Amino acid sequence: MPNKKTLSTLVISLLFAACSTPKTYFTAAIRAQLAANQQPLNKIQFYNDREIVLRRDVKTGEAKVTDGKVVLENGHNVNIITLKKNTPGVCVLERNNIVGIAFEQNNNNFITFGKTKQARPNDPYRILANEWINEYGVINYDGKPYHIEPAGTEASIMIKSKILRKLNISQREMKGRKVDSNVTPPSTTN
Fold this sequence. Notes:
Layout: H1 4-19, E1 23-25, H2 28-36, E2 45-48, E3 52-58, E4 69-73, E5 76-83, E6 88-94, E7 98-102, E8 111-114, E9 126-127, E10 131-133, E11 136-141, E12 144-148, E13 157-160, H3 162-165
Antiparallel strand pairs: 1-13, 2-6, 2-13, 3-5, 3-12, 4-5, 6-7, 7-8, 8-9, 10-11, 11-12
């Protein structure tokens, strides 16, 4: 029978393994850590945390739809592109507080994620739209305007947690310093 110390170590190890997740949300703080370690974003695999559905009305004269599917709704042709949860993507655009993630081969077809105005450093990068109409975000995709279905308007991006464990982070805390009456102040020479 294992002793109490071995048993408690085993329980702690199992809890730690159960609590650790294979993916973590991409945040401004994580982006800063990656930059400090010269880790290029285009070498990191990104994933969306929920399904994102893009819709647009197809004009009558349009000859073809390249991606997605076209359905007839109330006499209108609608193009629907679905991005399933956990689809892998690559960073093809980097700016101050945003990244463009391409989930298809064409680097010009990307979805923008970023730090929202009220976000704190540990808040996830969320899907960004060019404009908001009611609860629908409007983005440009494949050179055309698409509406983000409401369920996808809170979508965020994630990366694998193991990337963060590989970072070489050096951290320390300053202890402070008290005035010592026996220390002579440094001299100033001109």
